[in-house]
């Protein structure tokens, strides 16, 4: 077994176990930290799958931004009496959906994935920058406007309404 | 790189189902948001796995868009959740049964 395989399986297991941890924990802040572990492991997997640019974006935006947002959300909306919310409902339908989707996707995966070729190294970031500003310029501009609208909208919604 | 894509796709399937399970069985709204993040990441992992076979890296490109959309969704959802908490003093989804107050 090569070193890269060991790294790969470590990230693989960490991501899967962190997802299980989110499911079984009753504490919201623990779930947020399990999500951090899962996201960072996924960034590692992205590197191993030759997606270095997306790995950096994942670390910056997810592990940096989204988690801080979530942590603030948890701190603000936590109950002051320290009592945890009752944690689960709809257990049987949930487990049925979980099993069904997992079996379905695994069948698709095993059936259709063999023979995917592997891409040799390339100058990804430069290539992607060029594609962003040429082929996908409309999508790029639209997502910039979307972020502006989200910024204004979120600050308006979160503003204390003194009416 | 000698990693079999089938592992990435399998992990993606597992994360997606896990996110779905979290969304369905948890009652706290923040848990549901975390489940949504898991599902979005499963989709992203799929993009990346198929992008590793594509010389133009189109999957990675759409992965970036998807990360940005996920961040926007988290910001708006938490702002709405804040208002819900101010009104109901709780984030239990079973108690949120009125659209108007």
Can you walk me through this structure?
The complex is a heterodimer of chains A (163) and B (101). The model of chain A has no long low-confidence stretch (mean pLDDT 82). The termini of chain A are far apart. Among the domains of chain A are: 1-77, NADH-ubiquinone/plastoquinone oxidoreductase chain 6, subunit NuoJ (Four Helix Bundle (Hemerythrin (Met), subunit A)), CATH 1.20.120; 123-152. Chain A is built from six helices and no strands. Chain A is mainly alpha-helical and 163 residues long. Chain B is an all-alpha fold and 101 residues long. Chain B has a single domain, classed as Helix Hairpins, CATH 1.10.287. Chain B contains three helices and no strands. Chain B has helices at 5-25, 29-51, 58-88. In chain B, α1 (5-25) packs antiparallel against α2 (29-51) and α2 packs antiparallel against α3. The longest helix of chain B is centred in the last third of the chain and has 31 residues, at 58-88. At the A-B interface, α1, α2, α3, α4 and α5 of A face α1, α2 and α3 of B.
Number of domains of chain B: 1
Distance between the termini of chain B: 57 Å
- Counted beta strands of chain A: 0
Q: What general outline of chain A do the C-alpha atoms trace?
A: globular
Q: Could you tell me the CATH topology label of chain B.
A: Helix Hairpins
CATH topology-level fold name of the domain at 1-77 in chain A: Four Helix Bundle (Hemerythrin (Met), subunit A)
Calculate the mean pLDDT score of chain B and round it: 86
Written as H for each helix and E for each strand, in order along the chain, the element string of chain A is HHHHHH
Number of strands of chain B: 0
Largest interface: A-B, 85 and 74 residues
CATH second-level architecture of the domain at 1-77 in chain A:
Up-down Bundle
Instruction: Give the H and E element order of chain B.
Output: HHH
What is the CATH class designation of the domain at 1-77 in chain A? Mainly Alpha
**Sheet bearing the most strands of chain B, described?**
none
Average predicted confidence as pLDDT of chain A: 82
Strand content range of chain A: under 5%
């Amino acid at each position: 077994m090569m070193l890269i395989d060991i790294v790969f399986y470590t990230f693989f297991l960490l991501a899967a176990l962190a997802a299980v941890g989110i499911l079984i924990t009753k504490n919201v802040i623990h779930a947020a930290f399990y999500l951090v572990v899962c996201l960072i492991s996924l960034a590692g997997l992205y590197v191993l799958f030759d997606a270095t640019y997306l790995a950096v974006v994942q670390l910056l935006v997810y592990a940096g931004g989204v988690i801080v947002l979530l942590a603030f959300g948890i701190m603000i909306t936590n109950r002051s009496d320290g009592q945890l919310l009752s944690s689960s409902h709809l257990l049987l339908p949930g487990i049925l959906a979980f099993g069904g989707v997992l079996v379905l996707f695994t069948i698709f995966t095993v059936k259709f994935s063999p023979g995917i070729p592997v891409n040799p190294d390339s100058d990804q970031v430069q290539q992607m920058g060029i594609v962003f500003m040429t082929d996908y310029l409309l999508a790029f501009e639209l997502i910039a406007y979307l972020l502006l609208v989200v910024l204004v909208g979120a600050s308006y919604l979160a503003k204390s309404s003194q009416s | 790189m000698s990693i079999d894509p089938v592992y990435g796709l399998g992990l993606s399937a597992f994360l997606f189902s896990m996110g779905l399970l979290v969304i369905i069985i948890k009652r706290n709204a923040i848990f549901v948001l975390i489940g949504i993040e898991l599902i979005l990441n499963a989709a992203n992992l799929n993009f990346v796995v198929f992008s590793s076979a594509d010389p133009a890296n189109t999957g990675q490109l759409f992965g970036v868009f998807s990360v940005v959309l996920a961040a926007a969704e988290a910001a708006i959802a938490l702002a709405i959740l804040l208002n819900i908490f101010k009104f109901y003093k709780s984030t239990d989804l079973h108690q949120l049964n009125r659209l108007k107050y």
